[in-house]
TrEMBL record:
UniProt cross-references to PROSITE patterns, sorted A to Z: OMPDECASE
Record-given protein name: Orotidine 5'-phosphate decarboxylase
Enzyme Commission number(s): 4.1.1.23
Keywords (A to Z) from UniProt: Decarboxylase, Lyase, Pyrimidine biosynthesis
Tree of life domain: Archaea
Gene this protein is translated from: pyrF
Source organism per UniProt: Methanogenium organophilum
Organismal lineage: Archaea, Methanobacteriati, Methanobacteriota, Stenosarchaea group, Methanomicrobia
Length: 211
């Protein structure tokens, strides 16, 4: 059963710290992406680190290897434990993020298949399977796969073996936590926790599906 990862997509430092503090006892990691970093700055990582929970940088890094390396180095220098990159730029671009993660003693995850309906246009099916295999070959620690499509998670699991699957899409996007939990290693939950009237209680509800 999976770790619980909070997607902290709020738009102010105050709200980020307040939600993180409330939910912290029930969390295994906090994922931060463009919404919060553009609103509050990358140095939001410092106060969030004080909750003692690993931070995952979700910048879905997608550039040439040199630029990916520069981005990943900034991420790990800021105190993040893991980085998420896209795979569609190719194995050399992914390898740059994996190398930066390895150098920092951290982890790198590759988006294989996305959770929203539009993913079915490009980021699903055979393409997702190729991306998952490439993530394994590049030495990534795992992939991102959709809680909205449990059958696809099973297909991708057969490709990646015991690499980790972090899975967004439960709650607000319609995925069922009970169905997806046995299939994945990390359940990513955003709005269902941070917009809840009581984020601590909401986090506790999802934490029932943890290991
Ligand atoms: O629970 P939500 O829907 O409010 O938030 C889900 C989070 O997961 C949010 O931060 C999204 O950007 C992210 N996400 C997806 O929803 N779908 C994907 O396919 C991939 C991600 C993601 O985290 O990629 C690394």
């Amino acid at each position: 059963m999976p770790d619980l990862i909070l997607a902290l997509d709020v738009l102010s430092r105050e709200e980020a710290l307040s939600v993180a503090e409330a939910a912290a006892p029930h969390l295994d990691a906090i994922k931060i992406g463009y919404p919060l970093v553009l609103a509050a700055g990358l140095d939001i990582a410092a106060p969030l680190s004080e909750f003692g929970i690993p931070l995952i940088a979700d910048f879905k890094v997608a550039d040439i290897p040199n630029t990916n390396s520069l981005i990943a180095q900034q991420v790990f220098a800021a105190g993040f434990f893991a980085i998420i990159c896209q795979g569609f730029c190719g194995s050399d671009s992914v390898a740059a993020c994996v190398e930066a993660a390895d150098d920092a003693g951290g982890e790198c995850y590759v988006v294989a298949e996305m959770s929203h309906p539009g993913a079915l246009e490009f980021l699903s099916g055979k393409n997702a399977e190729l991306l998952a295999q490439m993530a394994v070959d590049a030495g990534a620690h795992g992939i991102i796969a959709p809680a909205t499509r449990p059958e696809r998670v099973q297909t991708l699991r057969a490709i990646i073996g015991d690499k980790k699957i972090l899975s967004p899409g439960v709650g607000a996007q319609g995925g069922d936590p009970e169905t997806i939990a046995p299939l994945i290693d990390g359940m990513i939950v955003g709005r269902s926790i941070y917009t809840a009237e009581d984020p601590a209680e909401a986090a506790r509800t999802y934490a029932r599906f943890r290991r």
